[in-house]
């Protein structure tokens, strides 16, 4: 008999800017009601957006974004979202391909313009493996 391939946990970062969520000081406070509700919504949308791209990784049931931070964007009314996400990398399946993930996320966000009811800065999507 052969042992099942070992799964290794790996992290990647995901960054994007929301152009229709005005940044305010309460988004910088992790215990504020506005921060918590925004992160809950972001976690929902990001989880949905990652579902299809990670299918090819064989990691769908093993992916999550564990850390979110919100900060002021380049323009006064923008909020930049930084997420640290993880997935289980199975040696027998396809490896993580950040370029493929970027392309899939771009497609799923209407060419980096929409994430749910949020508008995105088209030049802000960044995936780092």
UniProtKB/TrEMBL annotation:
It holds the Pfam family SEA. Residues 8-129 form the SEA domain. The chain crosses the membrane at residues 45-66. The keyword Transmembrane helix applies. InterPro entries: MUC16, SEA_dom, SEA_dom_sf. Keywords: Membrane, Transmembrane, Transmembrane helix. This is MUC16 protein. The lineage of its organism: Eukaryota, Metazoa, Chordata, Craniata, Vertebrata. The gene is Muc16_1.
């Amino acid at each position: 008999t052969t042992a099942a391939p070992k799964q290794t946990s790996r992290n990647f970062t995901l960054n994007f800017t929301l152009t229709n969520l005005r940044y305010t000081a309460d988004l910088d406070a992790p215990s504020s009601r506005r921060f918590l509700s925004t992160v809950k919504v972001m976690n929902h949308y990001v989880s949905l957006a990652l579902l299809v791209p990670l299918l090819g990784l064989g990691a769908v049931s093993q992916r999550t974004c564990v850390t979110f931070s919100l900060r002021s964007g380049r323009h006064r009314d923008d909020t930049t979202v930084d997420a640290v996400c993880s997935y289980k990398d199975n040696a027998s399946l396809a490896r993580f391909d950040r370029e493929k993930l970027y392309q899939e996320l771009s497609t799923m966000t209407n060419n980096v313009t929409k994430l749910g009811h949020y508008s995105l800065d088209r030049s802000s999507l960044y995936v780092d493996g």
